[in-house]
Request: fold
Amino acid sequence: MFRDIDILELLPQRPPFVMVDHLTDYSETQSSCDLTIRKDNVFCESGMFAAAGLIEHIAQTCAARLGYYNKYILKTGVRLGFIGEVKDLDIVRLPREGETLNTTIVVMQEIFDVTLVTAEVRVGEEVIATTRLKIAQGQQSSSS
Amino acid sequence: MVLQDNLFSIMSQAQEDGQPAFQVQIHKEWPIYKAHFPGHPITPGVCIVQMIQELLQVHLGREVSLRKAKTVKYTAIISPDEVSELSVSFPKIEQQEDGSLKVQAQVAGGETIYTKLSATFQ
Reply:
């Protein structure tokens, strides 16, 4: 059911800077998103998805969770979000064009507008990257 | 996405204590600012990482990619309406036995430090 939501409803970012396709799972403490790497993705160069794109994809998995919470649970608007810190990032390998990323974030701590998560990016069963992120929420988005 | 000459241009390149330091200009007309975010242009944090990677490549004269990051800390937002020039310095670039590079980088403008990175590139 989460999959059916237009991802743009949940995010403050707009194309071509949208790095998740669907919210695939949501709970208060854990959420997942997917992304298929297409040739026209701005972070796709020579068939490879750049490290910066991978981090943005993880951050937008957090954004989609917060967007769902703000829109469908609090019934308010989507808010802007910012990365406060990337910690203990480990990229096993970069994704390739055509691959589908499945990313799960687990909320470790949430204090006011700051969320700390751990994240795992998989292609099929293979874990290709892990990290911790600190995300801060800002003002309401003008695109929602 | 290549950011050099799109998001930023190199104005000057110097050495500080044997390590590279760049002065870059930020282009506020970069199209991604309309997507991140509509009506509120803010430099995506991940593009700061990409800019550091591209400047490292200019210094090394070869391609490298971020492999691990101990920390990338964003201490202030870079709004293109308020910030037009940044200095990017590399206090540490250290080759490891496996060929990877341990890198420390800092992005600043005037008195403000925007980003501090401690990472491994390969």
The two ends of chain B are 19 Å apart (CA to CA).
